[in-house]
Amino acid sequence: MIQFTVLGDPVAQGRPRVGKTKRGKTVLYDPQKSKDFKQFVGLVASQYAPAELLEGPLNVRLKVYKPLLKSFSKKRTREAEAGLYRPVTKPDVDNYAKGIKDALNNVIWKDDSQVVELTISKWYSAKPRVEVEITSLA
Fold it and tell me: What span, in angstroms and rounded, lies between the C-alpha atoms of 76 and 102?
């Protein structure tokens, strides 16, 4: 099992942007914020990377802790910290997972297609972060 925490505000995978090359060819690219977050996740994960990339089926658990909102009352803040009040706002949980899975390609595993079980949950916390747990099912 590999476990690590990515500290800081979680960033969901943004929609691809469209641009043109100097020769007029259309290209798709990641938004800068998504690209930066993926690089940061890869950097953190590299500290926990196995000697050889994981192969075979994998189970991945992600816990995304979004920052508390400034508009929260003291009562709402306590409820959110206790896990009684959960984020039901955008972005969707699968958009968080997409960026993190992409970031772990060739760092932890060969390809994110190896992930056969995925559990994602969103929470509020005064300490925003993403907790990642990877288990080999082989």
Answer: 34
Identify the band that residue 133 occupies on the pLDDT scale cut at 50, 70 and 90.
very high
Cα 130 to chain center, whole Å?
A: 6
Distance between CA atoms of residues 126 and 124, nearest Å = 7
Mean pLDDT of 85-94: 94
Tokens of 81: 């910290």
pTM above 0.85, yes or no: yes
Task: Tell me how far CA of residue 38 lies from CA of 23, 66, 118, in angstroms.
Answer: 29, 17, 18
User: What pLDDT is stored for residue 29 in this prediction?
Assistant: 87
Domain that includes residue 46, residue range: 2-59+93-120+129-136
DSSP result, 63-81: EEEEEPPTT--HHHHHHHH
Say how many domains are in the chain.
Answer: 1
CATH assignment at residue 112? 3.30.1330.70
